């Protein structure tokens, strides 16, 4: 039986671990960076964060949490753009255009980096969540 989420590459740098995860459900790979609070930690510390990141990716992609987060992000951005009013067509267009491009895992939270190639062209949308996947912050990187 094939793993739902597997690591297809790892590269340890002085202050992070760069990983590419393959999500079987989507038949797609995603880059991720794992960062520890103290960069000189052991391989075991990275192993714990790596296991935590695989678990959270499983939750995101195999329980529809990614769809929920994408909807919340589209709603928040659309309401902000229209001063609290939800313009349904703009919301739907953004929701359909948003795509996850990468992840950054920290010990206490994670960043989901989205792109919106038709609407935000070359801007990244960064969403900070805790490990219960509650959105804590959202920003559009201009």
Give structural notes:
The chain has 142 residues and is of the alpha+beta class. The protein has one domain. The protein contains 3 helices and 7 strands. The protein has helices spanning 43-62, 65-81, 88-97; strands at 5-12, 17-23, 28-34, 99-105, 109-115, 124-130, 135-141. A 7-stranded mixed beta sheet has the order 1-2-3-4-5-6-7, covered by helices on one side. Helix 2 crosses helix 3 (88-97).
Please outline what is shown here.
The protein is α+β, with helices and mostly antiparallel strands and 142 residues long. It has helices spanning 43-62, 65-81, 88-97; strands at 5-12, 17-23, 28-34, 99-105, 109-115, 124-130, 135-141. A seven-stranded mixed β-sheet has the order 1-2-3-4-5-6-7, with helices on one face.
How are the SSEs ordered, and which strands pair?
Blueprint: E1 5-12, E2 17-23, E3 28-34, H1 43-62, H2 65-81, H3 88-97, E4 99-105, E5 109-115, E6 124-130, E7 135-141
Parallel strand pairs: 3-4
Antiparallel strand pairs: 1-2, 2-3, 4-5, 5-6, 6-7
Helix pairs in contact: 2-3
